[in-house]
Amino acid sequence: MSYRLSKQEVSGLFEKLSEKYDIYAPKRVKNAGRYSETDIIQYAKISDISEVVWDEKSTYPMKEVLSPIQQTIFYFTEDEYRESKGKTRPMLIFARPCDINAMKVQARIYAGNGGFVDMYYQRMHELARYILMPCSGGDDTCFCVSMGTNTTDDYAMAVKPLEDGMLFEVKDEEFAPCFEKAEKAEFAPEFVKENELTAVIPEIPDKEVLNALKKHPMWKQFNGRCISCGACTIACSTCTCFTTRDVIYGDNPEVGERRRVSASCQIDTFAKVAGGGDYRTTAGDRMRYKMLHKFHDYKARFGESHMCVGCGRCTARCPEFISITVTLRKMNEAVAQIRAELGR
Amino acid sequence: MTNYVQPKPYEIISVKHETDIEYTFRVATDIKPEHGQFLQLSIPKIGECPISVSEQGDGWLEFTIRKVGKVTDAFFEKKAGDVLFLRGPYGKGWPMDEIRGKHLFVVAGGTGVSPVRSLLNYCVKNEGFVKSVSLICGFKNCESVLFKSDLEKWNEKFRAWFCLDNEEHEGFHKGFVTAYVDQLPLAAVKEAGEDYAVVVVGPPPMMKYTGIELLKNGFAEEKIWMSFERKMSCAIGKCGHCRIDEVYVCLDGPCFPYTVAKDLVD
Ligand SMILES: Cc1cc2nc3c(=O)[nH]c(=O)nc-3n(C[C@H](O)[C@H](O)[C@H](O)COP(=O)(O)OP(=O)(O)OC[C@H]3O[C@@H](n4cnc5c(N)ncnc54)[C@H](O)[C@@H]3O)c2cc1C
Ligand code: SF4
Ligand code: SF4
Ligand code: FES
C-alpha cells in the first residue's frame, strides 16, 4: 500500500516511530572533511527527519551501522572474557539500493561463510529494518547499474520526499498500523536505470588465466601510485575484514576490552606472519588481491554476485585518484591479452 | 546465539622446554580436535593466536609454541597451574579416511613437526591403522630439535630419516629434508600394488621444494596433503586475513590436498 503524508504528518510519524526504533540516516557532519571547510556525510542516529541528507551520496557506507569500524566484543579480567552487551532497540535505517544490496554481501560472509554465524553481526542484523530512499543517479563515480545493484525489494518502507510532504510505500505489515488514517496514493519507488559510468567485469575462465593475471605487469603501476592508506576499503560498502585487538585501560592494567577493528588488505601488515611468511609485499600485489576479491574470488566462492555494488566510494575517497572503473578497464585488457596468448 | 569467538579458561598442567624458544604446554580440557586441527589461544591483555594441537590425550591437549612475537612471548611467562584461554577446534585436519589402511609418508620440518605429531603418535598407538610409516623430519640444527623422546619412538617404529640443515650430529643426516625424498620406499609400495598417502608440513619454501621433489620421484599429486600457515584473526571465516583466492585457510585448511594447494598464489 502507498500513502501520501503532509510535512506535519511525516514529523509526527517519525516521532512516533522513534519511540520504538532508533532511526539512522546519512547525516551531514560539518567541516569534518579531508579539506578545510568540507563536510562529510556519515550514517548516524537522527532525532529529526530534517537531518537526512537526500541529495548526495554518503561519504561512508551504511554498513557502519551494523558493523562499526570499531566495536568491543568482550570485556576481560584475568580470569574471564565477558561478551559485550548488544543493542536492544530495533533500528530503522534510511538506505539506497546499493547500500541495501551490500548487506547481502556482508551477510554471506558474516552470517554464512563456513557455516559460522557471527553473533556480533547477527544480533545487529536482526534489529535492522530498511527505509528505501530515492537515488537520483548518483555521482560520477557510481556504476551500480553495471553491477545489477541499482534495484532492490528488500525494504520495509520506501519513501520519496516532496515539497510539502512525503510519499510512502509500506511493504512490511509491522508498519501498516501507522498509516491507518493516511491518505492513499499511487507510489512505487523508481530505480536508477543509467549511470554516467559503466563497468565491464572480465571473465576469468580458469586458474591458469587467473594466475597469469596475477603475474601481469599491470599491477606494477600501482607500486608508484597507491600509498597503501586503506581509505578505499574503509569507505567500501562491502569490505568486511577486521583485526582483533586487546586493549587495556590505563588506570587498571588487569581489565580491558577485546575489540574488533576494521582492517584493510591494502595495508602491508594485513597478511604478515611471524616466521618467514612473506605475502603481498608491494602495493601492486595488494591492489591485485583487492580487485580479484571484488571481481572474481568472492563469486568463485559464493556463486551469486560479485563483491562490489558499484557505489564508487573507493574511487571518491582515494587520495591518489585511483579509480576502480579505470582499474577494471585495465584488468579487462590484461585478461583479453592473456586469453589470446593462452588460446581460451 | 552461539558465540564462536568466546574464549574459555583452562588450566595448564605442565610446561616442557623443547628448546630455548619452543615450549610444549599441556592444558587440561575436554576439547577433542581432529589430528591436524588448530585452536585459538588467548591471554587477556595480550591477544590471541592460532596454534596447532601437537598431541592429545584423555582430558588434555598439547600445544608446542615458538616464541616469535607479542602473544607467543606471553605464553612463555605461563607456568603449570596458570590459566590459558582456548576456543576451537577449527579448520580441516589430516584426511584420516585417505590415510587409513595405506602406507603413510610424512615430510616435516621445524615447528611443522608439531601438526603431524599427534597423527604420528596415533599411528604408533593404533597398529594396523596404516600399513607402514616412512618419515623424514628436518630441523635447522641440534639446538632446534623438537620432541626428542617422540623421535626415538618413531625411529623404532617407523622408517625414519632425521636431518639437520647444516650440522653433523650423531643420529642425524646432514642436509635439507628434500635431499632424502628419493629414499622413501615408494617403489616397493607400488610394486606390491598398494596405496599410499603423503603428508607435508613445514615453512613455505620447504613445502614448495618438497612438493617439487615428490613429483619428480613419482609420487602422485592427488595423494599429497599439505598444511598451510597464514595470518589469522577470527578462525571462523569472517576477518579475511587468511584468504587466498576463494579459499579460507581457517575453514578449508589448514590441511589441503596438493591439487588445491599448488594453485593457491597469495
Ligand atoms: C593454522 C596455524 C597453526 C599454527 N600452529 C602453530 C604452532 O603449533 N606453534 C607455533 O609456535 N605457531 C603456530 N602458528 C603460528 C602462530 O600463530 C604465530 O607465530 C603467532 O600468531 C604469532 O603471534 P605473536 O603475537 O606472537 O607474533 P606477533 O607479535 O604478531 O609477531 C609477529 C609479527 O612480527 C612481524 N614479523 C615477525 N616475523 C616476521 C617475518 N618473518 N616476516 C615478516 N614479518 C614478521 C609481523 O608483523 C608479525 O605479525 C600457527 C599458525 C596457523 C595459522
Ligand atoms: S569496491 Fe568500490 S565501488 Fe565496489 S562496493 Fe567497494 S567502494 Fe563501492
Ligand atoms: S587505492 Fe587509493 S585509497 Fe586505496 S590504499 Fe591505495 S592510495 Fe589508499
Ligand atoms: S582467520 Fe579470519 S577468515 Fe580465516
Description:
The complex is a heterodimer of chains A (344) and B (266). With 344 residues, chain A is an alpha+beta fold. Chain A has helices spanning 7-20, 63-66, 97-110, 119-125, 144-147, 207-215, 221-225, 231-234, 283-302, 313-317, 324-342; strands spanning 2-6, 22-29, 40-45, 70-77, 80-83, 91-95, 128-132, 157-162, 165-170, 183-184, 242-249, 252-262. Chain A folds into 2 domains: 2-60 and 86-184, no CATH class; 207-239 and 264-342, no CATH class. Chain A contains 11 helices and 12 strands. Chain A starts with a strand and ends with a helix. Chain B has 266 residues and is of the alpha/beta class. Chain B folds into 2 domains: 8-90, Elongation Factor Tu (Ef-tu), domain 3; 96-261, Nucleotide-binding domain of ferredoxin-NADP reductase (FNR) module (Rossmann fold), CATH 3.40.50. A 7-stranded antiparallel beta sheet of chain B has the order 4-3-7-1-2-6-5. A 7-stranded mixed beta sheet of chain B has the order 11-10-9-8-12-13-16, sandwiched between helices. In chain B, strand 1 and strand 2 (22-28) form a beta hairpin. In chain B, helix 3 packs across helix 4. At the A-B interface, strand 4, strand 5, helix 4, helix 6 and strand 11 of A face strand 15 of B. Bound molecules: flavin-adenine dinucleotide, iron/sulfur cluster (2 copies) and FE2/S2 (inorganic) cluster. The site of FE2/S2 (inorganic) cluster has 12 residues of chain B, from loops. Flavin-adenine dinucleotide sits between chains B (38, 49-52, 64-66, 68-72, 111, 114, 229-230, 232, 254) and A (269, 272-276, 278).
